[in-house]
Each structure stands twice: as structure tokens, then as C-alpha cells.
Design goal:
The complex is a heterodimer of chains A (about 475) and B (about 350).
Chain A lengths: L7 H12 L6 H10 L1 H9 L9 H7 L9 H14 L3 H13 L4 H4 L3 H13 L4 H9 L2 H6 L13 H8 L10 H10 L3 E3 L2 H10 L12 E3 L9 E3 L2 E3 L3 H9 L2 H16 L16 H13 L4 H9 L2 H4 L9 H12 L8 H11 L22 H15 L5 H11 L5 E2 L1 H12 L6 H11 L5 E2 L8 H13 L9
Antiparallel strand pairs in A: 1-2, 3-4, 5-6
Chain B lengths: L1 E3 L6 E9 L13 E6 L5 E5 L7 E5 L5 E5 L1 E2 L5 E2 L2 E6 L4 E6 L4 E6 L4 E5 L12 E6 L5 E5 L4 E5 L5 E6 L14 E3 L5 E5 L4 E5 L5 E5 L12 E6 L5 E5 L4 E5 L5 E5 L7 H9 L1 H8 L14 H7 L7 E6 L4 E6 L4 E8 L2
Classes of the chains: A mainly alpha (about 475), B mainly beta (about 350).
Chain lengths: ~475, ~350
């Protein structure tokens, strides 16, 4: 194993920025290292106004990204924000909740309401879990996803009540079938405006006459079952708010959320359906996060602060396989491939889809299975092609910035091995196997040493460096975060 | 919803809505209509931006007959991508600006392809995203050059004649301009999109006046996309970001804010006739909903309120001074007419 020359602080900061975001340039890592690790954690978790490619610029070019008829434009709209925001934690937490509260366009036939849901994850995703879960219960996209518009007083539909307990808060084994029924009764009357018309349009995939009409929450008091209910041992004339409050004070809920946080931000866990039968990978870490959940009054941001500042997090570098969105967005951000509206955001959304992660269209309400399941012969080809295309394009400003940085190092003169080490350091810092390093040096070294001092934009020298960067992005090691 | 800013003055009357979404590359209906132009015999040439691949010109009339269509999505002759603007000259040649390939395509009014000019760049006669096109009284073609922040003038054959503008926010400067209009006195009006104003120039491009500022109040704009001026000097602005149409008096004083009041077009009625269960559910719905606070932006209100404007990209006057507002995301055109004063 060759360890590229690097600073521990920079490596740790790079780890944090990959997990709490989608990676950062070397310049940003160095700026943040000056500020300090814990201060950076605080900054990432603090509320603030995000800056990203302006919405008006995007909407003028892509007049259909909010129109909802098809998936790609809406997915591309999120890609723009993922790739250009200066508040990556906001997007990471939205992606985290999107994977848990999985809402699928293919059932809804409407994307804008899912984008509004994603925005809700940005607003509430780092706050109290109670607030998030309550807003989720009012979310019209989730209602259509789990049929709560069909959940009526005297004729309950259990779909939402069941998934609320099984997949969104407590996990199997921590509640009874009666609890599901009682929760469902409590959520009768929770529906969306013009539910019958909207549900019919969904059912028929109708966009006529004037394209989609977006959705909003509606409460029908006359359709709510106000009778007495017994739920998880408590009895009362519960409404939906009461159910959420009871759920959020359960130890099982804390355990469930803590394990999700560990799985997504620290190290790959077993798939969720195996959790009742498989102990956590690091039970002490999960228990630590459970305690923070209760000490902080169910605050997700505080759980993440504790997580990011913990040794188990800091020791987990490159322990997770990058999910497709992490890979694609990381490449876009590192290469700077998106500077103005174009087809690139669409291409990126489709690429993530081909790699197995279609944003706004998770495969089921269970979300995606993370970890090594991301990698198969088809997805790895997609990963390699996307990564090499953008990281080897020396016209991309991020790639150009890497070349500029290399030119300022070592007098701009490198042996093939030296260039490989320098690139691994600037791109990561990334540690690779000896054989990988040898192969990279061999590929870039066919024409001998390289000097960046007299290069001109896009010349053969820059292209050689670009090709090396493209190759690095295709290595096995680059697939991990 | 119409808001009369000054009572007792001119107002806007709603006339009708034309359109329906067409989820295919051809046929009756619209695919993100972005601009309109008017030909002889009451023909309305509707330019469909057609995201992602349905670009074309559809020809209709006020009676909602779908007459014919021409153009296609692509890069070959007679094709275009990401079309932005359309204009017609005295010989009924149709000029279609396209953003993707940075050029202007020319057709005869029957759809016969005649030629094209332009390429990407910032030199004379080159474009960075042509955004709209107009024909002046001499038959010359004015093209708004979005990302070069300027207006360029050409002969009808595409020979470069001159330009004005340049990036900035001072008088006569532009920031990503969009729509263009030439009034009865040959003055040129430009929707100065990212400066949140409209500017008036003389026929040679000399600055004359500027109207509006950033905001959502009366006479303020949020990214105006289109502008036109009627024979009496009343000014109409497609206030794109505020999702409304504004009417100003000839001195530029705000008169009317029109949020939109679309009704069912004839094509929409025919669709609902064929789908009675949708009509029944629709008629039992409240399509003017009260929305929670987090959905209160003009954009989100428009996505929830079908009758309101959503993404009004162009406003144009026909020979009878009827006002046509194209709405890409709603695939329709709302028609209005001024009355009074």
C-alpha cells in the first residue's frame, strides 16, 4: 500500500466533506482545515441561506423542470442544486431522508410534489424528528404514495399506518397489528386538496388539459375518526399529531434512526429488512447516538454533530461504497462540469439512474439497498464512463484548477510516479494499492516525465494530466467514501 | 385574478384560452409554447419550445382550429432545438430563433424551409443563445442575443448590420435580455430580464427610457420575459418571475396586475367530454385553493392554481390589439384585450 504524501488534517476534512456533503476541492479543504474540524462541523450543521445556480437561470432554460410530466427534468433540477450548492449538508440530509421516506414518481406520476417534499427535508431534516415526521404525515406526495387519501372514518386503509411504523420510525418487531390499525384510524381525514380529482389523474396518468396541478395538504374533519384509540400502550382520542408524538418518544424509534444515521454517514450496515435479525455493526456507536437522540429532545442535527465528532466516524474513512448520487455529484463538483444550464444535469440524473439510483424514483417504499449492492458489472461500467468523461475533460473548470495547482507544485515538473502521487493527493487524498499506482504511472508515463510549466490550455500536456485524473476516478478506491 | 391598480382607467378583459398539453412530437395541442406571431387570415404561429424533443411551430387561429405545423426537433435543415422566439415579416417569412444551435431559421409561412444563419460566439453576427426575434419597418431582423447581452440587427437574408447593448445595469445596458417588440413609431422595446426592467430604444438603438425595478409591487418586475406596446402606447409586460401580466399606461404608470384567469379551451372541453369521470371530479374540486405558508411563492401558487399564469414567456399583440400570453409549463395561450381609457 502506498500512502500519498498528505496531511492528516486534510484527509480528515476530506472525509467529513465527503460524508456531510459530496466532496470538496483541495482549496476548500485547506480553507476549512484552517478553520478547524469541529468548527466546520458546526458550520455545516448551522442553518443558513444556500447559494447555488440561480433558480431563474435554470427555469428559463429548462421550462419543464417543474412541470412534472416526466422524471428526468425534475431529477435534473435536483442535480443542479446538488452540484452547485454551497450548503452540501442540506442536500445530503435531503438525500438521506429521501432514501428512508422513499417516495416514487412512478406511482405518483407527478414530480413537483416530490421536489416540494425534498425541500421539506431540507427545511426540517436537521431539526426535531417529531416535526419532520409530522410534516411527512401531511405531505401530499407521501399520501398518494401510501394511499392515505383512501383512509376513511369507518373504512381504514392501513398502508400509511403500517409503513409509518415499519419503515419510517420503529422497525418490525416493535409494534402490533392493532397498533397499525389504531394509527390508521388516527390518520383518517388526513388527505390532499381535491383528493378525488388528483387521485383520479394519478390513476389515469392524466396531464390534461394543462399539465399537472401540484398538491397540498387538506384535513377533512368530517372524515376523521375521533373515537378512543389505544396505541403503543397509550389510550385517548388520538389524532395524527398524537401518534407522531408517541412514536417519537419510543426507544425503538431512537434505535431505528440512530442505525440509519450510522448506515448512511458512517459505515455500510445490513439492509434494513435484516435489522430485526442482525445486530448493528457497531452497537456502541448506535447506542451513543440513541442517547444523543433523547438528550437533545430528538434533534437530528445534534445526533449528526455527535456522530461527526466521534472517533467511530473519524476512523471510518473509505468504509462505505459511494452511492450513485454521491459518485455522480462528487464528480460534478470536483470537475466543475456544471457552470450554466445545459444537458449535463440531465445526463447526470440519467447516469445515477443507470447506476441504480434514480432520484425521485426509489425502487420501493423501502428505498435503496446501500453498500456493495451498488456495484455490479453494469453499474461499474456506468460509473467508470461518467467519472472518466468529466474528470478527464480539461475544459472543466474544476479539472483546470487541479492542473493549475499541480503546476504550482514541484516546479510543475513530475516523474510519472510523482504525478500520480500528486494527483492522488489533490483529488483525495486517496490511498491506492501498489498495483493500481503502478498501472496509473505506466499509463501516464509512456511519454516520460511531464512538465506543466509551459503548457497552454488544452494542449497535449494538459490532456495527459486529464487522462490520469480520469483514470484515478475509475479506480476501485475512488468508489469508496 | 385581476388587480386594478388605478380605478377609472383602462382595464384588461379576459377573452379566452387556446391550448392543451400535447405529449407527443406532432399533432393538435402545444408543447411548451414560448412565443407567438401573427400571419394573414387570422393565423397564429405558435412556437413550441417542446422540451425535451418536441420543437415545432403549430399554426392555429382564434377559433381554435389547428391548421398545420412545421419544423421539427433536431439539427438538420428545417429543425431546431430549444426554440425561443418567432417573428413574421411582410412577405410572411417566419423567423425562428433557437438557443441550442445559436441561430435563426427561416421558413415560408406554409412551412417551407428557406435557410438559416448564425453560429456560437461573441463576434458580429454570432450569438450566445438568441432569445427572441422581431422584424422592423424596413424588413430588417432584430435578434436579442441573450448571453452576449445585446441586440443585433440583420438584413432579412442574415447579413449583419449592427448592434447595441452590452452587459450592465446602466441605461442602454442589458443583462440576459429576453423579449423584444417594435412599436408603431419604430421604437424598440426589450425585456431586460435580469435587470428587472424593460427598456425603450429608438430605431438605431439609442436609449430612450427604462421602466420598472426589482420587486413584486405595482410597476415592479421579477425577471420580465416579454414586452409589447399597443397603438395608444399602453405597455404590457410578461412579469415572468411574479407569474403575472402587468399593464402600464403610456407614461409607464402601473394600471393592472393580471394573475391569470384561464378557462377551458375548446380542446380541453373536448378532452373532458371524452373523459367524463375526470370532468365530474374536476367540477367537484376547488381549483382556487388556500395554500399553506410554505407554498405561497408566486411560482408554487401557480403550480397549484391552474387558472393562473405559470411561466409567462411572451406577450404579443395581434392586428386587432388582442393580447396573447404564452405559458410554456401550462401549454396554452391566454388571450386578453384592453378596454377603457
Amino acid at each position: 500500500m502506498v500512502i500519498a504524501e498528505r496531511s492528516t488534517d486534510i484527509s480528515l476534512m476530506a472525509h467529513l466533506m465527503r460524508r456531510a456533503g459530496f466532496g470538496a476541492s483541495r482549496d476548500e479543504l485547506e480553507r476549512r482545515a484552517q478553520v478547524g474540524y469541529e468548527a466546520t462541523v458546526d458550520e455545516l450543521l448551522s442553518p443558513g441561506q444556500a447559494n447555488y445556480m440561480p433558480e431563474d437561470i435554470i427555469l428559463r432554460y429548462h421550462c419543464n423542470v417543474l412541470e412534472s410530466r416526466v422524471l428526468d427534468p425534475a431529477a435534473a433540477r435536483w442535480m443542479y442544486r446538488l452540484a452547485t450548492t454551497d450548503r452540501p449538508m442540506e442536500e445530503k440530509i435531503a438525500l438521506f431522508w429521501h432514501g428512508i421516506f422513499a417516495t416514487d414518481w412512478t406511482k405518483l406520476n407527478q414530480t413537483l410534489s416530490i421536489l416540494v417534499q425534498i425541500d421539506m427535508f431540507r427545511r426540517l431534516g436537521l431539526g426535531r424528528f417529531d416535526d419532520l415526521l409530522l410534516e411527512l404525515a401531511r405531505d401530499p406526495a407521501m399520501m398518494i404514495m401510501l394511499d392515505n387519501q383512501d383512509n376513511h372514518n369507518g373504512s381504514i386503509n392501513e398502508n400509511w399506518g403500517r409503513e409509518l411504523l415499519e419503515l419510517f420510525s420503529m422497525g418490525i418487531g416493535n409494534y402490533s397489528e392493532d397498533d397499525i390499525k389504531e394509527a390508521s384510524r388516527a390518520f383518517t381525514g388526513w388527505t390532499l386538496g381535491n383528493a378525488e380529482y388528483m387521485a383520479l389523474r394519478v390513476e389515469k396518468d392524466s396531464v390534461w388539459p394543462y399539465s399537472c396541478i401540484s398538491w397540498h395538504f387538506d384535513y377533512r374533519d368530517w372524515d376523521h375518526d375521533d373515537g378512543e384509540k389505544t396505541f403503543l400502550g397509550d389510550t385517548g382520542n388520538f389524532n395524527g399529531e398524537d401518534i407522531v408524538e408517541i412514536i417519537c418518544r419510543q426507544p425503538a424509534t431512537a434505535q431505528f434512526i440512530a442505525r440509519h444515521i450510522y448506515d448512511f454517514f458512517v459505515a455500510d450496515e445490513a439492509p434494513v429488512p435484516q435489522w430485526p435479525y442482525t445486530p448493528p455493526r457497531d452497537p456502541e456507536a448506535v447506542e451513543y447516538l440513541v442517547n444523543v437522540y433523547f438528550e437533545s429532545d430528538h434533534n437530528i442535527g445534534e445526533m449528526l454533530r455527535a456522530c461527526f465528532n466521534s472517533d467511530f466516524f473519524k476512523d471510518a474513512q473509505f468504509e462505505r461504497v459511494k452511492c450513485p448520487v454521491e459518485l455522480v455529484v462528487g464528480i460534478l463538483r470536483q470537475s466543475g462540469a456544471i457552470t450554466r444550464p445545459s444537458d449535463t444535469a440531465f445526463e447526470a440524473a440519467r447516469a445515477a439512474n443507470f447506476m441504480g439510483q434514480a432520484v425521485l424514483a426509489p425502487p420501493s417504499v423501502e428505498g435503496w439497498h446501500e453498500g456493495v449492492e451498488w456495484i455490479n458489472s453494469g453499474s461499474i461500467v456506468e460509473r467508470v464512463n461518467f467519472a472518466s468523461k468529466h474528470m478527464s475533460n480539461v475544459e472543466n473548470p474544476g479539472v483546470q484548477a487541479i492542473i493549475d495547482r499541480l503546476a504550482s507544485m514541484n516546479g510543475g515538473h513530475f516523474s510519472p510516479e510523482g504525478l500520480v502521487d500528486a494527483c492522488l493527493d489533490v483529488v483525495g487524498p486517496l490511498e491506492v494499492e501498489d498495483s493500481t499506482r503502478d498501472s496509473l504511472a505506466q499509463a501516464v508515463g509512456r511519454e516520460g516525465d511531464i512538465s506543466l510549466r509551459d503548457r497552454t490550455p488544452g494542449d497535449d500536456t494538459e490532456v495527459r494530466v486529464g487522462q490520469l485524473l480520469g483514470l484515478i476516478a475509475t479506480t476501485r478506491e475512488y468508489q469508496f467514501t | 385574478m385581476t388587480t386594478q391598480v388605478q380605478s377609472g382607467r383602462a382595464t384588461l378583459d379576459y377573452v379566452k384560452t387556446i391550448g392543451i398539453v400535447n405529449n407527443a412530437a406532432k399533432g393538435r395541442g402545444f408543447a411548451n409554447p414560448y412565443d407567438v406571431a401573427f400571419g394573414s387570415g387570422g393565423r397564429i404561429f405558435v412556437l413550441n419550445r417542446g422540451m425535451p424533443a418536441f420543437s415545432r411551430v403549430g399554426v392555429v387561429n382564434l377559433e381554435e382550429d389547428y391548421l398545420y405545423e412545421f419544423g421539427d426537433h433536431g439539427d438538420n435543415e428545417g429543425e431546431f432545438r430549444l426554440a425561443t422566439g418567432i417573428a413574421i415579416d411582410a412577405s410572411e417569412r417566419i423567423y425562428v430563433a433557437e438557443e441550442q444551435n445559436h441561430r435563426v431559421n427561416v421558413f415560408q409561412d406554409d412551412g417551407t424551409y428557406l435557410g438559416r444563419w448564425g453560429s456560437q460566439g461573441s463576434g458580429d453576427g454570432e450569438f450566445e443563445g438568441p432569445a427572441s426575434v422581431a422584424v422592423d419597418g424596413d424588413g430588417n431582423i432584430l435578434v436579442v442575443d441573450q448571453n452576449n447581452h445585446r441586440v443585433q440587427k440583420f438584413t432579412s437574408g442574415g447579413d449583419y448590420l449592427g448592434q447595441w447593448g452590452g452587459f450592465g445595469s446602466g441605461n442602454g445596458q442589458l443583462n440576459m435580455p429576453w423579449g423584444i417588440w417594435i412599436d408603431g413609431d419604430s421604437n424598440v422595446w426589450v425585456a431586460d430580464w435580469r435587470n428587472d426592467r424593460v427598456q425603450k430604444f429608438d430605431a438605431d438603438g439609442a436609449f430612450m427610457a427604462s421602466y420598472g425595478e426589482s420587486g413584486d409591487g405595482d410597476g415592479q418586475f421579477d425577471r420580465p420575459s416579454g414586452v409589447c406596446v399597443d397603438r395608444d402606447g399602453y405597455i404590457y409586460v410578461a412579469d415572468w418571475g411574479n407569474q403575472r401580466l402587468q399593464m402600464l399606461d403610456p407614461d409607464g404608470a402601473p394600471l393592472v396586475n393580471e394573475r391569470g384567469q384561464a378557462t377551458l379551451s375548446q380542446w380541453a372541453e373536448e378532452y373532458l367530454d371524452a373523459n367524463p369521470e375526470e370532468r365530474e371530479a374536476r367540477e367537484q374540486s376547488n381549483l382556487w385553493p388556500e395554500l399553506p405558508e410554505h407554498l405561497q411563492t408566486p411560482l408554487l401558487v401557480s403550480t397549484q392554481t391552474e387558472a393562473y399564469f405559470w411561466g409567462p414567456s411572451a406577450v404579443k399583440l395581434d392586428d386587432e390589439e388582442r393580447l396573447y400570453v404564452a405559458e410554456g409549463p401550462r401549454h396554452r395561450i391566454q388571450v386578453y384585450k384592453r378596454s377603457g381609457a
